[in-house]
Amino acid sequence: MRHPLVLALAAAALLLAARPLLSEDKKPAGDDDSPGPEHAAMARWSGSWTRSIKLWMKPGGKPFEMTSSAEIAMIMDGRFSRMTATSDMGGHKYTGESTIGFDRTTKKWSVYAVDNMGTAPTFLEGTSADGGKTIEFAGTMTVAGKDTPMKTRWVQTEKGPDEIVMEMYKGEGKDEVKMMEVVSRRRK
Questions:
Q1: In terms of C-beta density within 10 A (0-12 exposed, 13-18 middle, 19 or more buried), how is residue 11 classed?
Q2: Measured on CA atoms in the order 82, 84, 89, 94, is the torsion positive or negative?
Q3: For 114-125, what is the mean pLDDT?
């Protein structure tokens, strides 16, 4: 019986600790952190998608091509966009998830991606000059068998209400090469 009592005491302590952070109307104190226009842009991506993927194993080589399906939905009360994608990747079932967000405080976009082909998540930050129609993410990602993280840049471009293109590059500067292109088309 001590377990429910401990939980109740912990919940009460959390409420008391959070009280200074809440204003009289029960909203967090400080700047408005409700979804904004960038989140409305993300909401446009919600739905079912068919994806055509090109993956270059070596620069200038012939790309490996495959198709994938994806579901995109807004989560966390309209603050983040989550995509779940599945495909057959050369006889292996691929599942990947990514979550895109926009932080109204820092004015930066972010993407967090994981899949069943590796154990390292990828987290990148980005910017957009056009309210989210084109977002350029940059950072590093871990590659299996490599000792050091690899520089990467992802560019997502909303071509219209029914098409989104994601281009992924590795390296930087004159050493940057395109490693993947994903063209997503909305299923009707």
A1: exposed
A2: positive
A3: 92
* DSSP letter string, 43-86: HTT-EEEEEEEEE-SSTTSPPEEEEEEEEEEEETTTTEEEEEEE
With cut-offs at 50, 70 and 90, classify the pLDDT of residue 173.
confident
- The DSSP string of 90-119 is TTEEEEEEEEEEEETTTTEEEEEEEETT-S
Q: Is residue 56 within 8 Å of 180, Cβ to Cβ?
A: yes
171 residue type, one letter: G
Give every CB contact of residue 70 below 8 A, 6+ residues apart in sequence. Answer: 48, 49, 50, 51, 83, 84, 85, 86, 184
Taking a C-beta distance cutoff of 8 angstroms, is the pair 151, 142 a contact? no
* Cβ proximity of 145 and 154 under 8 Å: no
Question: Is residue 63 predicted with pLDDT exceeding 70?
Answer: yes
Q: Do the beta carbons of residue 33 and residue 7 sit within 8 Å?
A: no
What number of other Cβ atoms are within 10 A of residue 169's Cβ?
16
HSE, side-chain direction, 13 A CA sphere, residue 127: 2
Quick one: DSSP state of residue 21?
Answer: G
The fold of 34-186 is Lipocalin (2.40.128)
Contacts of residue 112, defined as CB under 8 A and 6 or more positions apart, other chains included, come to 98, 99, 121, 122, 123
